[in-house]
Every structure is written in C-alpha cells, then in structure tokens.
Amino acid sequence: MQFDNDYRMLIGGALVGAAKSLDVLSPATEQVIASVPDSGEAELQAAVDAARKAFPGWAATPIAERKAMLNALGDAIMANADGFMRLLTAEQGKPHHEAQGEIMGAGFWLKAATALDLPETVNEDSDERISITRHVPLGVVGAIAPWNFPMILAMFKVAPGLLAGNTMVLKPSPFTPLCTLKFAELAKEILPAGVLNVITGGDHLGPLMTAHPGFDKISFTGSTQTGRRVMASAAPTLKRVTLELGGNDPAIVMPDVDVEKIAEQLFWAAFSNNGQICIATKRMYIHKDIYEPLRDAIVAYAKTVKVGDGAQQGTQIGPINNRPQYERVLDLIRDAKDNGYTFLMGGEKSDVPGYFVPITILDNPPEDSRIVQEEQFGPVLPLIRFDDIDEVVARANASDYGLGASIWSADEEKAYELAQRIQSGTVWVNETQHLSPLAAFGGMKQSGMGVEGGVEGLLEYTAAQTLVRRKKPAFKG
Ligand code: NAD
Questions:
Q1: Of 38, 144, 446, which is best to mutate to test ligand 1, by the most ligand atoms within 8 angstroms of its C-beta?
Q2: Which residue owns the Cα nearest ligand 1 atom 12?
Q3: What is residue 477's predicted lDDT score, i.e. its pLDDT?
Q4: Domain of residue 357, CATH code
Q5: Domain check: are 115 and 214 in the same one?
Q6: Residue 473 has what pLDDT?
Q7: Most exposed of 76, 143, 180, 253 (fewest Cβ within 10 Å)?
Q8: Which of these is catalytic: 43, 102, 278, 375?
C-alpha cells in the first residue's frame, strides 16, 4: 500500500473526500502534516445509508467467511506494519517501537478475535417443545475511537462488531485520523462495499453520530465526561451503548518486593505511551517499609529515560498528543506547585516546540490532591506512602473510576486475594496492562458500561433472540 499524503474516507466501498477539510498536526513540531476530509451531515448520512444497505448481506454471510475476511484484514495491517508505524508516530507522537507494538497488536486483535463464536443456548428440549436462545446482529454500529491508541482501540470495536454480523461506521479522533484512513484503503480491498465505512471530521461529528437515528448501537472509547454525553444523546432512540471510559488506576506495592528489580517495571506501568493509557498506573501506593528506597530507584531509572521526538532513534517517551491534553497536564502540574507539593523530578515546562512535558514524579502528595484524585493521562505520577492494607484498599476504592488496578508482591497468593477486594474491571498481579481479545475488559463505576473482548464483548454487538417451537401439534385437527 502507498503511504502517500492522499487521505480519503471509505463510504459504500468508494474512497471519497468531503467539501471541507481538517488539518492534522504533528504533536512533536505543531506543524501541519496532512489534511483529511471534514465530514458533515451529508457524509454521515451517506455512510449510514451504505452501512444499512450492506447489513442484510453481511448478516447472512456465514460466520466462517466473515472470520476469513477479518483474518485477511489483520494480515494486511501486519504486511504494511512499517508504513503504519511511521504514520502512527507522526500523528500520535509515540516512539517507533511503541507504534510498532500497536500496529502489530491491531493486526493480531482482528485475527485472534476470530477464535470467538456466538453461543447458542438450549433452554428447553422436552417432549412438548424446544426453546433455544441465539444471538443476532444489531444492525448498524457507530464506533468512536480516541487518540491515544487510534489503531488498536478501533480494532477492539471493528473485530467483534463485524464478526457478530453488524455493519459499521468508524470515526477516529480528529487528532489521529491518518492510520485509520489508510486502514480504510485496506478494508476497501477485502470487505464487501458498505460493511465498514470510515469517516473523519472535527468535534461536531461525534455528537452528530450519537444523535443519528440510523445507528442501532454506539461503541465509544474516550473520556468519562464525553461518555456521559454519548449516553444522553443515545437515549432518545434507545441505542445500545458500550462505553470504555477513563480510569485512575492504583498500583499497590507491598513491602516484600525486590526494590531494584521492580523499579523499571513500575516506571513503565505509569509512563508507557507517555502516560496516555486508560489503564496506566495513575497513583502508586508504596508500603512505608520500602517507600524511600523504591521512590529513589524509580526516580534514578526515570532520569535515564529519553523524552523526545518519537521518530528519532533512542526516544523512549514522545510528546503529549494534542494541545487540549497538554494544557490539562500542565494545569495539574501547576496545581501541585501552587499547593507546595514536593517534586522529585520534572514540573518544568519544556521550551522546545511540540507538546513535550518532562517526566514528573511527586513525593507523597495528599490523598485529596487533584493529582491523586483526577485522571492525569500524561507523564505525571504521584507516589503515595501507605501503612496499612485495609486502609490502602479503601483509598484505592474511593474513586468514581474503576477501570484497572495492580498489586505487586512476592507473595502471589496473598496478592491474588487482595486483588479480589479492588473495585476495578481488571486487576493484575505483578504485571499490568495485559489485555486479550479473548478476555472481557471494561470499567466498573464511571469507568464505563459494558465490556470489550471475550465472548462477553462479542455479545454486546448482538441481541438475544429466543426461538420456541412445539414438538407436538398445538391444535388437534
Ligand atoms: P474524548 O472523550 O475527548 O474523545 C473521544 C472521541 O469522542 C473522539 O473521537 C472525539 O472526537 C469524540 N467526541 C467528542 N465529543 C463527543 C460527543 N459529545 N459525542 C460523541 N463523540 C464525541 O477522549 P479522548 O481525549 O480522545 O481520550 C482520552 C480518554 O479516553 C481518557 O479519559 C482515557 O482514559 C479514555 N480511554 C479509555 C479507554 C478504555 O478502554 N476504557 C481506552 C483509551 C482511552
């Protein structure tokens, strides 16, 4: 595939433009790197019509054939991994090695999800009747993806949505539409026309989608704040929603860990992708017996990490993806400064162009500080001292968020018991951020509604239909 600078949308099997266009900036330089179509109501309507038209044929296509096409799509992404990697770094900011991981992960996700099948339950099989429940596709699904992992998080939706027999309209974030539009070119060659439509546009387009009566479901990944709006706007037409929202993941580090060995792993739990991960560690609770040595080991490691342009060799952390998020992170740093909290490193604004924020680590800020209570979604980590297990569990759970959490201990059994006391959709022991297309992933409380991944995630793209048939004649005649 050509990774040229021509970006068009995929509607009804054709690559098309729009009357208006939208600039995409490099987060590393703040320069315009490309323009993409800026859709309005007309383009959205065309995409919904194309998806609606394609639905009966796709729903009737045997699941084995749908799986074969998803496998081919996954292979096509992987075969073009190098071009996608460079483009992802250019639009998102992440270093090449992380971009490579995301692209290969996106291909893998499409392929691995084909191991899933739609279950059928026999509810009754008696002399009188047979009753079964099967799962049928919903119709047209609108998928709205965020900017932190534009490719893989789109595949979290495309894989189960299409596998279940729905047709789709996918919208990437206005900050990161480029890889998704190149992915659309691959989809054009593999999928029947209208099965997957990809449209791009500015901030007006998401609300137009969620309010549009032509969608049967909206699958949204983004902030909790926007998730509330999505749900409200889906209500008038009772669209189904899956909401994958924000998190404020705690890590709890027990006193029996090997401080020197674990410091690097804990650092990356918080700072991978520049902290812009819904399931990044966002507050790190460290037992008082190891607080000082572990704090110092994390800071010593952090000082070796190179922040810079993701396209340059050796860069380990890139810029923040976009200006609004950059401002949010700087505001949290400012608040910590204004309140006199102790900075172990960072806290300064970078003077170079681009949305660069130096790695920032805070020493034991108060539990009620904004940096502990809010989702930072950037390279700022509060280290927090704790004394007592029950107390730290209570602090970990005292949040409106409940996405992920991790427990770190040499005693895996005890850690596993502790994990079960945490109110989060996923809890890891001695690792973090491991997700699988075969496992349900979602948020408790205001971190979301519904799940992606696993049979549970696949079923969210279906409606249960119970079919009942008598075995004996109903009427004597
Ligand atoms: P965002 O909420 O600003 O935007 C997400 C998407 O929604 C974008 O495509 C945007 O254009 C669109 N949008 C904006 N307003 C809309 C509206 N009113 N109606 C419909 N769509 C609208 O989120 P973001 O800043 O792109 O992403 C960061 C957030 O996403 C963080 O809070 C992070 O934790 C969360 N996130 C969650 C997961 C998860 O799986 N739970 C994964 C990644 C990111």
A1: 144
A2: 206
A3: 56
A4: 3.40.309.10
A5: yes
A6: 73
A7: 76
A8: 278
